[in-house]
Amino acid sequence: MYSAAFAEAPHSLYEQWRAECGSLVPVELSPGVPATLVIGYATALRILNDPDRSPADPRRWQASVPSGCPVLPMMEWRPNALRSTGYEHKRYRHVNVTALDTVDLHGLHAVVEQVAIPLINTLCGEPGGRGQRSAIVHAELLGQYIRPLVHRVLAYVLGLDPDTNDLVSAGMAAMFEAAEDANAGGELLVAALDEHIERKRARPGDDVTSHLIKAGDMSAEELIHQLVTLHAAGSEPLAHLISNTLLLMMTDERFAGGLLSGSLSTRDALDDVLFTNPPLANYCISYPPQSALIDGVWLPAHQPVVISMAG
CA-to-CA distance for 20 and 11, rounded, in angstroms? Predict the structure, then answer.
């Protein structure tokens, strides 16, 4: 799954693997890191709905992986709901839900507009003579509009200062790339969030970080990893959801037949993308505590089982 061929045409490979292997496919996440990819819908539901037999705690697997493994920052154990089971999962989940419930979604709509409009205006060309603007030559929407929009709105929600937001965004991007600098990106991210938490302890506000601090008796390390989870879920996947949806609306005749008069709405486009080109294609990882037979395939104990939302 780390090959250029997979990156260029994943859906073709999903179909090939489905014909050859069925719903469970032996793969490598990076060289020498085996896993099982789940590309059958019913099988995925069965695994996701059985956390006792498919727990998300990776520590036994992690002990067998070299520290420099490029996928480790995205998969390693963290004290958060995503990587815990049982009581700890419930504890972390409760704290996150409590903090997120404080977000004023109606007020957030206005924040999105305040961030988006200046970004859109920068795409309209430089001012010309007599107040006229020059025609658009081209715009790189992911870098010039989508990522800045997502990161600035997320910074507002989490209460990140601009300098901290830049460091957090850079560290998170490096982790999602799972490249050679992924470990350095993780270290940058943790250091930036540690400083952010200290600032919020000294000057709390009406933001998710301040409410996380209030909601539970968590250590600085635990708080950092709640924020890592929230930022990870709220940044790169959202940026790709927006970009995939814009691409669909500008190229698919059902939408592009008239962005102002097309027969299908933006909501329809979002739903279409979530079904056919989801922004987080392969994740929801579990680690069976013992070998398990599913759909005639033995899943090795303590080896990653990855759900393919795209597949």
Answer: 14
